[in-house]
Amino acid sequence: MGATSNAGSYLARPPGDCCTKGCIHEGQPRGEYETIAGVETYIVQPPADRANGHIVLYLADVFGLYTNGLLVMDSFANAGYLVLGLDYFCGDPIWKHRPQPEAGEEPSYDIRDWMDPDFDFHGWLNKHIAFADEAVPRWTAAVKEQYGQADTKYACVGYCFGAPYVCDLLARDVVSAGAFAHPASLKDHHFANIKGPLFLSCTQDDYTFPNESRRKALDILHKGDKTWALQLFTNVEHGFALRSDLDDPYQRYVKDASFRGIVEWFDAWLSQRSG
Ligand SMILES: *[C@@H]1O[C@H](CO)[C@@H](O)[C@H](O)[C@H]1NC(C)=O
């Protein structure tokens, strides 16, 4: 059963326009690429003096393996984790669907400005959901086999498109802790079926996960006696954890607070003696 399949209406809507805008960050990602289970994977090592022996699995937003995401993966590595992120878009992230800018023209990073009007967003989305549903479980199994030791623990973090895979990995007991930020494509069962602890990093101004849906999700977590924590921001849009404008001090604060919240959640749960 795929992580995003199953009947029922959405609590967090599938990615939409709001998922395709934001700022591209500057920096030189320090990881490397490798093919794991046939899927291109970004892998970044923790500094030797800080390595904690545990692994973070990164489930990307619709931009895939782009600078912002790679730099966030580098940050999880700097915090002590070996980090791996798979390209479930197979070289076809959303930003590839842009017309070439005219000579001398600054490229816009709001895809709504540059998306080909004939681009079939839903066709694109469904194709990649089908692949990711199938690829994430076997990729995860291959990562465990190739990189795991007997005492390695796992955590997973997903942004937008990646959120249902976080819930799926928590439901299947593959990871000791999970987290998502500005999630998309979530139904009741995603919350009802989790086993391990879930951290939700959200904004109240989110098209994909509006107030009413978030409250319903919390009800499901509460009724199911799940372990969770909610971090809720105002005055930031969907995408805040990855595509904030870093020249804006408040947006920079929110992005950093989301990252810190997630990494501290992982640190706390992965250092428990059991689980
Ligand atoms: C959520 O509620 C707040 C406070 O009432 C409101 O300002 C905001 O627009 C709501 N968000 C959405 C996405 O409906």
UniProtKB/TrEMBL annotation:
GO molecular function: hydrolase activity
Domain (Dienelactone hydrolase): residue spans on this chain: 40-268
Pfam families: DLH (PF01738)
Cross-referenced InterPro entries: AB_hydrolase_fold, Dienelactn_hydro
Transmembrane spans: none
Gene3D superfamilies named among the record's database cross-references: alpha/beta hydrolase
UniProt cross-references to PANTHER family, sorted A to Z: DIENELACTONE HYDROLASE (PTHR17630), PROTEIN AIM2 (PTHR17630:SF44)
Protein name in the entry: Short-chain dehydrogenase reductase sdr
Gene source species: Purpureocillium lavendulum
